[in-house]
Amino acid sequence: MPDVKKISIALTGEQIVALKAAVETGEYATTSEIVREAIRDWQFKRELRDEDLRRLRHLWDQGKASGPATPADFDAARQEARKRLASAAEDQALAS
Questions:
Q1: Residue among 51, 58, 11 nearest 35 (CA)
Q2: How far apart are CA 47 and CA 28, in angstroms?
Q3: Mean pLDDT on 57-75
């Protein structure tokens, strides 16, 4: 095990009971093991969140670089979607 140092943390009574119960049932060997696992999980989630932020920043930069926004014509998009849906339904009917 790497260089281990002790620290003091404050937990609620409910948290302490949960830790002790996990040790008593044999799920974990020690309460320290539980805390170390919780910290590993936290570190992993933090890395995922950091990667998500990097990805979002990249997408934001791409969007900004793509130029100014143009108004969307939702009526035209809806009509195009209906045409495609009708065409797909016809193709499926012909294939049956």
A1: 11
A2: 25
A3: 94
